[in-house]
Amino acid sequence: MKFHMANEDDIRNGRTTDVYFVRTKEILERNKIKKKVYAEFTVANPPYDWVVFAGLDEVIELLKGKNVNLYALPEGTIFPRRDENGIPIPVMAIEGDYKEFAVYETPMLGFICQASGIATKAARIKQAAGDYVVLSFGVRRMHPAIAPLIDRASYIGGCDGVSSIIGAEHIGKKPSGTMPHALILTLGEEEAWKKFDEFVEEGVPRIALIDTFGDEKFESIKAAQILKDLVAVRLDTPSSRRGNFEDIIREVRWELDIRGYKDVGIFVSGGLDEDSVRRLRNAGATGFGVGTSLSNAKTIDYAMDIVEIEGKPMAKKGKFSGAKKVYRCKNCGRFFVSYKEHMDTCPVCGGKLENMLKPYLIDGEPVGEYPSVDDIRNYVLWQLKEFYGEE
């Protein structure tokens, strides 16, 4: 018996595609039909007012060496539901003989739909957390084969760290985490805190889990008294025992403060999303471990559509035909989609417009150096601050 997962060769060989794309390619090949097409990737109804575009790196890897041109928004670009005129915004476009990429539509969509969903949720959560730490704890909720994808998308979306070993290695970071209830149950609370402090390397922050047995208030005080380098206490109280979680946090914060432990933070986890993070931050929480809402984030339902054949606009009904240009105003961040027309100036604020569809493959060859995960993450955070303030 084997794990239920496709390997890289399966993806590259088109075995993860929907069968009707294979049949379409066979029909075109048998009839010796070769037509140059221009296909765009758009999302009609995203679940949020804005989306973080992610997953481009894997599309590039898949199409590398194929006789196609690939254009896209830079990975990490935040784009709105529609442009200023209500036109769907192309986030990616492929140009070439349709047979060259027909069987890759399914995996290409999979790459960007899931990664964009996770990165968008991470950005929303980081926006809610502000300057406080957000860690991705979501890999346990999904198939382990995609742990690197989950943690990479979470990180570039704004998370400060990730919990899985392979996910952290994938982005060139050290994994982040606290201590599990299993350690407390095995050793007892105080002994677990002490042994963690004694045996875990110095660079790992001392965050004591305090909700296994006793009252959070008294356990937090005890932890602060026992561990001289305590960074934070962690509350992962189950919902059945939680009561008003915000009031518990306020109480813990108060009791630590009046005893001189104002530097000890409060790290919370368990069923968090952007709304609860915002509420708990306002109650006094200073760090957040977020799991299911990240890894199980709503996918962004992109679709790939041919919009031009042999240079002539053509698309199915309900789609906007013609190869398009995408512009963003450097001043106000507004997006504009045009057909062939070159635009220099924002019609709303008068700012300078930037052409956002950049070349990433020309005749299958990569163009330029791809940005690092830190560059992409910083780009996302910059846009959040510059164009997408708190809702």
Automatic annotation (TrEMBL):
Record domain Quinolinate phosphoribosyl transferase C-terminal: where: 118-305
Catalytic activity: 5-phospho-alpha-D-ribose 1-diphosphate + nicotinate + ATP + H2O = nicotinate beta-D-ribonucleotide + ADP + phosphate + diphosphate
Residues in Quinolinate phosphoribosyl transferase N-terminal domain copies: 18-116
GO BP, sorted A to Z: NAD+ biosynthetic process
InterPro entries in UniProt: Aldolase_TIM (IPR013785), NAPRTase-like (IPR053190), NAPRTase_arc-type (IPR035809), Nic_PRibTrfase-Fam (IPR007229), Nicotinate_pribotase-like_C (IPR036068), Quinolinate_PRibosylTase_N_sf (IPR037128), Quinolinate_PRibosylTrfase_C (IPR002638), Quinolinate_PRibosylTrfase_N (IPR022412)
Pathway it works in: Cofactor biosynthesis; NAD(+) biosynthesis; nicotinate D-ribonucleotide from nicotinate: step 1/1
Keywords: Ligase, Phosphoprotein, Pyridine nucleotide biosynthesis, Transferase
Name of protein: nicotinate phosphoribosyltransferase
Organism encoding this protein: Aciduliprofundum boonei (strain DSM 19572 / T469)
